[in-house]
Design brief:
This protein is an alpha/beta fold. It folds into two domains: 25-66 and 111-226, Rossmann fold (3-Layer(aba) Sandwich); 70-108 and 230-418, Rossmann fold, CATH 3.40.50.1100. The chain is 44% helix and 16% strand. The protein has helices spanning 4-7, 35-52, 55-69, 79-86, 111-124, 138-150, 160-165, 167-175, 190-204, 221-229, 231-244, 259-265, 294-297, 335-343, 353-367, 373-386, 407-418; strands at 24-25, 28-29, 75-77, 96-100, 129-134, 153-159, 179-183, 208-210, 250-254, 275-283, 299-303, 306-310, 346-352, 394-398. The strands form four sheets. Strands 3-4-14-9-10-13 form a six-stranded mixed β-sheet, with helices on both faces. A four-stranded parallel β-sheet has the order 7-6-5-8, sandwiched between helices. Strands 1-2 form a two-stranded antiparallel ribbon. Strand 5 (129-134), helix 6 (138-150) and strand 6 (153-159) form a beta-alpha-beta unit. Helix 3 (55-69) packs across helix 5 (111-124) and helix 5 crosses helix 10. The chain starts with a helix and ends with a helix. The relative contact order is 0.15. The structure holds pyridoxal-5'-phosphate.
Length: 419
């Protein structure tokens, strides 16, 4: 009689223990790429396996984050916003709202954590050029900044429509010495810029590294970007324990590709008592083409090299999307979020353009902080949620970026709406 089955106990599975060696987060992720990219991805995987265990690499990364990026970013009690939420509701309700201040990171958003990490890897691989795609221009600026810091050549692909909406960031990238390549195919936005960047990389990977700006794309990108961004959650955990003596009750982050959310969620993913909530762009309505909420309203499919939730039309073609914020205006999302959604670990919801705009102006007026329009989606939902939670609980919002880039667009939208 065999006793093996009773002796071999399966290890407890932690949700943080993904992806597997094939880049799978459950059924999601993987690497659906043309033959010409397999070698480049293989090299990247091998490089990352090496640096992952290399303390000197992480020491150098952390030193740059401390001296150049300005980490750790603080957590901050949004006292007047909290008071605003508590007005007129039951006195036992109204959680404290805290901000994790990624807007204070150099270049004004969390994106720089990832570009510094990947530029450092570019040096390790002996490559001299980086390319990037950008929507709002924040990842482009962060890439151009990392390129200048490390002395690398930098080409940034940007949809012509986005370049028009985000002129200031185009100028910033050029000032930093990067070359901006405007893309005139398709909807002339982020999806099209990503296609062009991938096409470039197919012919240039011997001397070029492609810095993907979010937890999307083929393996190993979703894992690498998550790991570089997870500094946000690691800091937040320590800061919460020091400030509150315990973990926060809930954490809220906006979800475009999903990197700021993955970054703050990852260290809490196996802390089952902390509610994690991702907020997608609800746009104008839940009708097809009027939002950018693949987790809430899409279905599994392949986009840009990995399997995840995607917004698709009835023929399986990638659907048109809309959001008032260019950084959320993307039909796909990182595969790890698809995994977290299906596991029921993270809740996903939406905030509309209007709700985000209200949160944008309210945060500016009450806290003296102009948040990015992307971030404003997270704040909008955080206010709704805080009103339902006990008043002794704490809710941390990942304040993913500052809104200087958005003031003209917000003014235009507010004038059109409110007169
Ligand atoms: C790019 C951006 C986002 C959206 O990207 P994620 O990968 O989902 O984080 C959100 N907020 C800001 C400020 C951004 O610049």
């Amino acid at each position: 009689m065999s006793t093996i089955s009773s002796e071999v106990k399966p290890l407890p599975t932690l949700l943080s223990d993904v992806p597997d060696e094939k880049g799978r987060f459950g059924e999601y992720g993987g690497a659906y790429v043309p033959e010409t990219l397999v070698a480049a991805l293989q090299q990247l995987s091998e490089t990352y396996e090496r640096v992952r265990l290399d303390e000197r690499f992480w020491d150098e990364f952390k030193a740059i984050l401390a001296t150049f990026v300005g980490r750790p970013t603080p957590i901050y009690f949004a006292q007047r916003l909290t008071r605003h939420v508590r007005k007129g509701i039951d006195r036992s309700k109204g959680a404290e709202i805290w901000f994790k201040r990624e807007d204070l990171a150099h270049t004004g958003a969390h994106k720089i954590n990832n570009t510094i990490g990947q530029a450092l890897m570019t040096k390790r691989m002996g490559k001299r050029r980086i390319i990037a795609e950008t929507g709002a221009g924040q990842h482009g600026v962060a890439s151009a900044t990392a390129a200048a810091f490390f002395g690398l050549d930098c080409d940034v692909y940007m949809g012509a429509e986005d370049a028009r909406r985000q002129r200031l960031n185009v100028t910033r990238m050029k000032m930093l010495g990067a070359n901006v390549i405007e893309v005139n195919t398709g909807s002339r936005t982020l999806k099209d810029a990503t296609n062009e960047a991938m096409r470039d990389w197919m012919g240039s990977s011997d001397h070029t590294h492609y810095i993907i700006g979010s937890v999307v794309g083929p393996h190993p990108f979703p894992m690498i970007v998550r790991d570089f961004q997870s500094i946000i959650g690691r800091e937040c955990k320590g800061q919460s324990i020091r400030q509150f003596g315990k973990l926060p009750e809930a954490i809220v982050a906006c979800v475009g590709g999903g990197s700021n959310a993955a970054g703050i969620f990852y260290d809490f993913i196996d802390e089952k008592n902390v509610r994690l909530i991702g907020v997608e762009a609800g746009g104008r309505s839940s009708r097809a083409g009027e939002h950018a909420a693949p987790l809430s309203l899409g279905a599994p499919g392949v986009l840009h090299g990995s399997l995840s939730y995607v917004l698709q039309d009835e023929h399986g073609q990638t659907a048109n999307v809309h959001s008032c914020s260019a950084g959320l205006d993307y039909p796909g999302v990182g595969p790890e979020h698809a995994y977290w959604k299906d596991k029921g670990r993270v809740e996903y919801t939406v905030a509309t353009d209007d709700e985000a705009l209200d949160a944008f102006i309210l945060t500016a007026r009450t806290e003296g902080i102009i948040p990015a329009l992307e971030t404003s989606h997270a704040i909008a939902h955080a206010m709704r949620l805080a009103a339902t939670l006990p008043n002794e609980s704490r809710l941390v919002v990942n304040l993913s970026g500052r809104g200087d880039k958005d003031v003209e667009e917000a003014q235009r939208l507010l004038a059109a709406r409110d007169g």
